[in-house]
Write a structure and sequence with these properties.
alpha/beta, 18 strands, single chain, about 40% helix, four-stranded parallel β-sheet
């Protein structure tokens, strides 16, 4: 079960947020006080109502318990308007698997065809109505089964919410909520029979969670020696199958053992999200994180982004942010812009930059997709590859795709940092040699660049490779011979060395100083000998590698073409 769309109307500053598409990773973007957090609160309010549906029937007026007051939460500007319906509305659209569809049919006796919509309306008297907006003769009977439907949703779907302000009480409360949920999964027979077994099982799980949380904390706080999650013996609650959230202590030993409540906001924030990343769930879940960058050092923010990306592989994740690091660069429409009471998917990266206040100083940065290469000959080939594809060629000519020659791997780190700052989707293409591999590891460790953003000019079973290793030697053998370098020998056939090292060895054997300047000149000319991206100019494997890179570019830039 997945929550595919959310529609919100007339809740605080949000007058209309129609069918927000919740992909695996959805990012809410907007300036301060535009309503990002209100969208999150509305989703949380709606799920709270569904999870406590029995409280609203037949009473229907207990919504204050969940933080809603019509005179405060219905838009003030509309309260005196001449309209009959003055209600806050929240609609959830779920997608069910075939098995779930059949199970629900068994409970309610009506077929929902895999798509289930729930409509929540909160009126002026704080009265709550929950219905299934379905047309036809079965519509009324289905809404009459709303308690059974909500119970089924609650069995298969949940929301985990981390608020933006992770103060002492907020951070500690969220952590305890998460721990409490994890502990609630211990339900075997022995556990129910033995009080000692309860305590032991709980502590065993807490120890495991503490060990998992220690690693990300230690990355940013090297002095951390130990993380402890434990239940004080005086607070063990034997009347419940799991502990209450205030019954767990969270201590960090960084030279002095201290409670998390006495740590700084950055540590609390990092600990909260790190713990969330380690918790499993037996239900489908939507994880909501409000401003995950709060209180964190930029390096820690990049780490949290990797956590969010990992969570999005197996969960739905919704975040609100002011940081370009969290922008979904692959699927631009998954970035939802919240502005003047409305919410809508971004169509272009320019819209995202404007919302975030990103100032671009040159036209190159305005490209939505940037390909980073080491040198001019690399750039020349990539441009030819783009021009071999009609759609990519058009995007390149319209400056939607840019190819940047960074002049050597030493410039890779600052270039990638800038691309992240300017919200660009990017692909890095490097030689598969010592320098390329070292710098690739550097940007992965320091900037959290995922592996899928890096490609190499490489050959199988070869330690070091560069672009020229992929060319058909027949293209340039006559040119090199005129320069006194004959590649028809055993040295050139040696697969253990990369192309430039072999050329240097051959040249030195005949008294030619193959300097760096000469190497650049030769590589540039060889690139010019290849008029286009045709198979005949490359080795069989080399052409396959380049086609794979071109397919990767086409996939990444699909929203531009």
């Amino acid at each position: 079960m997945q929550l595919t769309y959310v529609t919100i109307s007339n809740y605080r500053s949000i007058t209309s947020a129609y069918k927000i598409d919740l992909s695996n990773l959805t990012v809410l973007l907007g300036k301060n006080n535009e309503g990002k957090t209100n969208i999150i609160r509305a989703i949380k309010l709606g799920m709270d109502i569904l999870q406590n549906i029995d409280m609203f029937y037949p009473k229907k007026r207990l919504v204050r318990r969940f933080g809603y007051e019509w005179h405060l939460d219905y838009p003030l500007s509309l309260q005196n308007a001449r309209k009959e319906d003055k209600s806050t509305a929240i609609r959830f659209d779920f997608n069910l698997t075939p098995v779930e569809t059949q199970e629900l049919y068994g409970k309610i006796g009506s077929n929902i065809n895999g798509a289930l919509s729930i409509y929540i309306s909160i009126g002026q008297a704080n009265s709550v109505s929950v219905t299934v907006p379905k047309r036809g003769k079965n519509a009324k009977s289905i809404s009459g089964k709303i308690i059974e439907i909500c119970e089924y949703i609650n069995q298969h779907f949940m929301i985990q919410y981390i608020p933006a302000v992770r103060s002492e009480s907020d951070a500690y409360g969220v952590i305890m909520d998460l721990v409490e949920y994890e502990l609630s999964d211990i339900m075997d027979e022995e556990y129910r029979k033995s009080l000692e077994y309860i305590s032991g099982k709980q502590q065993e799980l807490l120890n495991s969670l503490a060990d998992k949380v220690k690693q990300p904390l230690k990355k940013f706080l090297p002095q951390v020696k130990e993380v402890s999650l434990y239940i004080p013996s005086r607070n063990i609650n034997y009347s419940s199958r799991y502990i209450g959230r205030r019954d767990v202590n969270f201590d960090i030993n960084d030279g002095v053992r201290t409670s998390l409540s006495n740590k700084g906001d950055g540590v609390k924030s990092l600990a909260t999200i790190a713990l969330l990343s380690q918790l499993s769930s037996r239900k489908e879940r939507l994880i909501i994180i409000d401003e995950p960058e709060n209180h964190l050092h930029p390096e820690a923010v990049r780490y949290i982004n990797t956590v969010v990306q990992d969570l999005a592989k197996n969960n739905q994740v919704l975040i609100s942010t002011h940081s370009p690091i969290f922008v979904n660069r692959v699927q631009v429409s998954s970035n939802i812009i919240v502005d003047k009471g409305n919410a809508y998917p971004a169509k272009r990266v320019d819209e995202i930059r404007n919302v975030l206040g990103v100032i671009c100083s040159d036209n190159l940065i305005y490209a939505d997709y940037v390909i980073v290469v080491e040198g001019p000959s690399d750039r020349e080939l990539i441009v030819k590859m783009l021009n071999s594809n009609e759609k990519l060629s058009k995007a390149f000519k319209n400056n939607l795709i840019a190819v940047i020659n960074i002049g050597g791997t030493n410039n890779l780190l600052p270039e990638v940092y800038a691309l992240q700052r300017y919200c660009c989707n990017y692909l890095i293409i490097l030689d598969y040699d010592g320098a390329g591999k070292t710098k690739a590891n550097e940007i992965k460790n320091n900037l959290s660049v995922p592996d899928e953003n890096i490609r190499y000019f490489m050959k199988p079973n070869k330690k070091d490779t560069e672009l020229e290793d992929l060319y058909n030697p027949e293209v340039y053998c006559d040119y090199l011979r005129k320069k006194g370098i004959d590649i028809n020998n055993a040295i050139f056939k040696n697969q253990a060395k990369k192309w430039s090292d072999k050329i240097v060895e051959i040249a030195s054997g005949v008294g030619i100083d193959f300097s760096k300047a000469m190497e650049n000149e030769v590589k540039k000319y060889i690139g010019e000998l290849v008029p286009g991206f045709e198979k005949e100019f490359f080795t069989e494997h080399g052409y396959g590698v380049l086609c794979g890179i071109l397919s990767k570019i086409e996939k990444d830039a699909r929203c531009l073409i």
